[in-house]
Amino acid sequence: MASFSIIGDEDTIVGYRFAGVPGTAADTPEQALEAFRAAVREHTCQVLLLTAPVADMIREEVLQHRVGAQPPYVVVVGDIWKTPVERPSLVDMINEAVGIRIMTDTEMPE
Fold first, then answer.
1. If you write DSSP's letter for every residue of 9-26 in order, what string do you get?
2. Number of domains the chain is built from
3. The CATH number of the domain where 84 resides is what?
4. Is the sign of the CA dihedral 64, 79, 26, 48 positive or negative?
5. What strands, in cross-sheet order, belong to the sheet with 47-51?
6. Which domain holds residue 51?
7. CB 51 within 8 A of CB 77
8. Which element (helix H / strand E) includes 76?
9. Picking from 45-49, 56-60, 80-84, which range would have the lowest pLDDT averaged per residue?
10. DSSP code of residue 70
11. Across all residues in the chain, what is the average pLDDT?
12. Which residues contact 73 (CB under 8 A, 6 or more apart)?
């Protein structure tokens, strides 16, 4: 069974605690980065949930970690404020990770 943890705002963290998921509150990019690095370093969980605002604050660090495909595996979730969750496509993630844009057939010049 996978273990979970979450990093997000205090109100969202409290909701997840009721479901038995531990978490760390982060309101600033510095707090978010510190909590993320600690979770990765200490292997406190197998699946690390990040609220969308937290993921936005530390976008580069999350991308670097995802590219490595190492636990904890990162999943971006909505917060209790219903912040929209942007799900980048695989093509977008590759473009961000390696700096190469993959063109589809419809985008190719004739």
1. -HHHHHHHHHTT--EEE-
2. 1
3. 3.40.50.10580
4. negative
5. 23-25, 4-8, 47-51, 73-77
6. 4-107
7. yes
8. strand 73-77
9. 80-84
10. -
11. 82
12. 46, 47, 48
* Amino acid identity for residue 80 in this structure: I
Model-level pTM? 0.73
Task: Quote the tokens at residue 85.
Answer: 């969750």
User: Phi/psi of residue 44, each to 5°?
Assistant: -75, -10
Q: Which positions ≥6 away from 35 have C-beta within 8 Å?
A: 7, 24, 26
The whole-number pLDDT of residue 90 equals 62
Structure tokens that stand for 38 in this block: 């600690």
Distance between CA 31 and CA 25 in Å, rounded? 8
* pLDDT of 44 higher than 80: no
Residue where the block lists tokens 């699946």: 47
- Each residue of 28-43: pLDDT tens digit? 999 999 999 999 998 8
Residue carrying the six token digits 């976008």: 59
Token pair listed for 32: 């978010």
Q: Are 102 and 94 in contact (CB under 8 A)?
A: yes
Structural tokens at position 30: 């510095």
Q: What's CA 40's distance to the chain center, in Å?
A: 12
- pLDDT of 1 over the 60 cut: no
